[in-house]
Amino acid sequence: MSTPDAPATPSPADPRLHPPAQGWAGLARAARRRLGSGELGSLPVVVGLVVIAIVFQSVTHHFLQADNLTNITRFIAGPGLIAVGVVFVLILGEIDLSLGSVAGASAAIAAVLAVRQGWNEWLAIAAALGAACVMGLLHGLFFARVGVPAFVVTLAGMLAWSGLQEYVLGDAGTVNNRHDGVVASLDTTFLGDGDIAYAWGLALLAPVLYLAARLHTARRRRAAGLTAAPAADSAIRAGALAVLTLATAYALNQDRGLPLSLVVLLGAVLATDFVLRRTRYGRQVFAVGGGVEAARRAGVNVARVRISVFVLSAFLAGLGGLFYASQQGSADKQLGGGNVLMSAIAAAVIGGTSLFGGRGKTWSALLGILVIQSITTGLDMVHAAQAIQYMITGAVLLAAVVLDSLTRRTRSSGRG
């Protein structure tokens, strides 16, 4: 006598086949499955930030003071914006070595046009960002249309735009920001002149929007006959985010309030995250990074996607250069040099973006630059030599790359 076939049981080897996690216990089981398959997500970065805070607070006793935390959120804007552009390039499986030079050249163009040529500062900024886009367009065209490797194209760009930066600045080599101008105010402006309502408002808005987005996604998945996360689990995640954002708002309001630079960086991260996760263009970027030939056969215009990514990364680098100029009070020949490029690339990788293409989030740029800036600030507070800072940052970067490689190997072995 035959019996009805039993329902297929999801294989524990494939987390995607498991039903959505239910409650705290379900989330814990899902987390264990993800860890077992190498899907660590942002966990190592979050743990690292906690360890960094504990270590430097125990050593300095004032690392977690409001003024120091505020300064960290201000200083991450420039490198963070460049790192967001790096994420897009790395998702393609490529590299852009020119972004530091693009940042320096853009800042130089904006300063010279506004201060020496007497342009309206907003027009000068628009011209500088437009020039950055042209630089990225040239990189993309040589890479996607001519076939020159991205490494070579952007290495040439790094040299060329550094030369352009020196040429624009001239013999003086430095152009001070216009006093109380737009660029000068990027780093010194706090929303509402320290009004605590801005920080609290943003801290409350973020988890509400996050919860609304998750519920909307779940509703669409159910309508399409797919499994979806329960509302309770979305509420738990939104609650955890609310705790984090409210704690941040409290710390900022103990000092000067919400920095404009942090708002711009968060806006860029949110906008680019939406583009990557919610738009057809974002899916095409991941498709090209996952496999060029497969993406081409699926109808993706690979050349157009590649060119647009290099334009976007250059635009964000130009914007980051303006924040660097605001922080140091001028545009000079050194802006964009030193460890600017390496910090941006390290931030993207430390935050969880894969060097092998096809995987990454723009939030990783924010998390990674928080790690780097926290280490830099903490070591400055204990008066460590810059050589020590470089070595520690290099060690953290190496650890992130090793973790990325192990995760990729785990996936390839069929365990994840």
List keywords for this structure.
ABC transporter involved in vitamin B12 uptake, BtuC, globular, 2 strands, mainly alpha, 416 residues, disordered N terminus, transmembrane helix, two-stranded antiparallel sheet, ABC_transp_permease
In short:
With 416 residues, the protein is mainly alpha-helical. 71% of the residues lie in helices and 1% in strands.
How would you portray this structure in words?
The chain has 416 residues and is mostly helical. It folds into two domains: 42-189 and 259-407, ABC transporter involved in vitamin B12 uptake, BtuC; 190-258, no CATH class. 71% of the residues lie in helices and 1% in strands. The protein contains 17 helices and two strands. A two-stranded antiparallel ribbon has the order 1-2. It starts with 22 loop residues before the first helix and ends with a helix. GO terms for molecular function: transmembrane transporter activity.
Physical arrangement of strands within the biggest beta sheet: 1-2
Which architecture name of the largest domain does CATH use?
Orthogonal Bundle
Mean pLDDT: 86
Beta-strand percentage range: under 5%
**Biggest sheet, open or closed, and with what strands and sense?**
2 strands, antiparallel
Query: Would you report the number of β strands?
Result: 2
Would you list the SSEs in sequence order as H and E? HHHHHHHEHHHHHHHEHHH
- Could you say what the CATH topology of the largest domain is called? ABC transporter involved in vitamin B12 uptake, BtuC
Low-confidence stretches: 1-19
The helix count comes to 17
CATH class of the largest domain, named Mainly Alpha
- In whole angstroms, the N-to-C terminal distance is 39 Å
Indicate the percent of residues in helices: over 70%
Number of domains: 2
Q: What integer value in Å does the Rg equal?
A: 23 Å
Which outline best applies? globular
Category by helix and strand content = mainly alpha
